[in-house]
Write a structure and sequence with these properties.
Strand content: under 5%
Bound molecules: heme C
Oligomer: single chain
Order of helices and strands: HHHHHH
Radius of gyration: 25 Å
Number of helices: 6
Shape: elongated
Length: 128
């Protein structure tokens, strides 16, 4: 009798344990899938942006509409930092991440299509 009940308890324990391992594995799998899909989308966006040959003039207009409140009308800095020679400190990929990522509040993340992002990059490159 006692042997029987102890094996039953053992079996329950094993089942419980397997269930937890199974669930953890599932959760992990979902996390990885989301990460890879996101990463893939981001890379696609960056590649598309870098393929466009943007216009500094259009970028200037875009900058005046979205960025001057914080970076100043001549991009010399206000709440946000001076952006002259930013392209010497950050590469294009890093700038794209800065503008679209929203990782450094109070700067918001901008949803901006590849063509306009490329225009902005051209404008930032035109600042000495
Ligand atoms: C609400 C204010 C705000 C707006 C609007 C804003 N920024 Fe910023 N930006 C900041 C702040 C603050 C930082 C500094 C973040 C930090 O690193 O702590 C920053 C940092 C940056 C940097 C990195 C500078 C560096 O020295 O590393 C770039 C590039 C930049 N902004 C570009 C832009 C562009 C382009 C726009 C418009 C599309 C924009 N920002 C709009 C506030 C703003």
């Amino acid at each position: 009798m006692s042997t029987f009940s102890s094996t039953a308890a053992e079996r329950d324990f094993k089942r419980g344990f397997l269930k937890i391992v199974f669930i953890l594995f599932g959760v992990l799998l979902i996390c990885f899938s989301i990460f890879f899909v996101n990463n893939h989308e981001n890379n696609k966006y960056i590649i598309e942006t870098l393929e466009v040959n943007g216009s500094a003039e259009d970028g200037d207009a875009l900058f005046k509409m979205n960025c001057v409140g914080c970076h100043g009308i001549t991009a010399r800095g206000l709440v946000g930092p001076d952006l002259h020679s930013i392209t010497k400190r950050l590469n294009d990929k890093q700038i794209i991440k800065q503008v679209t990522g929203g990782l450094t509040p109070p700067m918001p993340s901008f949803e901006i299509d590849p063509v306009n992002m490329s225009n902005l990059l051209k404008y930032l490159h035109s600042l000495e």
